[in-house]
Design goal:
By secondary structure, this protein is α/β, with parallel strands linked by helices. The chain contains nine helices and 14 strands. It has two domains: about 50 residues, no CATH class; about 240 residues, sialyltransferase cstii, chain A.
């Protein structure tokens, strides 16, 4: 017991008090990880109280695009049926392996984001090299992995949706203050919708959101983790989650639960989420033909 108290007191000198709760910074957490001052399980709890090192930078985006429209780009096969050149003078959000589309078409989003740890680990070099037109956003969890921090902000990602021990396990949540935190919701699209809301966009158009997944019989499935052994049939490029890459069970029923919340939040704020995907199975939002928007 004395040893535990000593280690706890030693750890606290690396933390700063923030009102009734402890507020932690990433440097403190990394120190405790290196020295073993606190257990891994305790540090996993600590991360929910992490303050973004870029909170001031993120707040410069609050309502910056109020009243404007934007596009959130999904990575389904239907994206190959869309002329992304139309987005040249539009604000757009894209994620994960969109760099394959940049390679083939030259399309580059205004904002870029990655949530999934498998995507980070399997594509780290490309992600570090990739540049958005305006800014990139990553969870604090990947601060040490992202070495290129130019035009980049790190936000606090609340993963309680995925944590079985959490009272909010598989319960959708929405953050109206992205500078403080953003809630996971089975798809990185949910975090982008929270970010777009924070930035003030009032019309959000979804493209490439096919809302359809097939897990190939050849895939190696270990719980919620899947490893591909062949080309990816679920995205616009065969290498997206191609041979050897890992991905998570998409759990579309959980994605739908989160879409329902996002729709409600936007509509109660007199904003709109509109589906401009070519085909696909996402029917919760009103649809519009992509070509008609230009």
């Amino acid at each position: 017991m004395k040893r535990i108290i000593h280690k706890t007191k030693k750890a606290f000198k690396y933390f700063r008090l923030g009102g009734p709760k402890m507020v932690y910074d990433m440097a403190s957490i990394r120190h405790c990880q290196r020295t073993g001052i606190l257990s891994k399980s305790y540090l996993n709890e600590v991360r929910y109280n992490v303050v973004s090192p870029d909170i001031v930078k993120i707040r410069t985006f609050k309502n910056k695009y109020k009243g404007k429209r934007c596009f959130i780009v999904g990575n389904g096969p239907s994206l190959n049926k869309v002329d992304l050149g139309k987005l040249e003078n539009e604000y757009s959000f894209a994620v994960n392996g969109i760099f394959y589309k940049t390679d083939s078409s030259g399309y580059r989003p205004s904002f870029y984001m990655v949530e999934d740890s498998h995507v980070i680990n399997d594509n780290l070099e490309r992600i570090n090299e990739y540049k958005a037109k305006i800014h990139r956003f990553f969870p604090i969890d990947y601060y040490d992995k992202i070495t290129n921090k130019e035009d980049t902000s790190f936000f606090r990602m609340n993963r309680s949706f995925y944590e079985k021990k959490s009272t909010n396990f598989e319960v959708p949540q929405f953050s109206t203050d992205f500078s403080l935190q953003a809630y996971c919701g089975q798809s990185v699209t949910m975090i982008n919708l929270q970010l777009a809301y924070y930035m003030g966009f009032t019309e959000v158009y979804l493209i490439g959101m096919d809302f359809s997944y097939d897990i190939p019989k050849s895939a190696i499935v270990e719980g919620a983790n899947i490893t591909s052994t062949e080309d990816d049939p679920n995205h616009f490029h065969p290498d997206y989650f191609g041979k050897g890459k890992k991905w998570h069970d998409p759990r579309l029923e959980n994605v739908m639960k989160n879409y329902q919340l996002q729709k409600t939040i936007y509509e109660t704020s007199s904003r709109k989420i509109i589906n401009a995907t070519v085909g696909g199975k996402l029917e919760i939002f009103d649809r519009v033909e992509f070509k008609s928007l230009f």
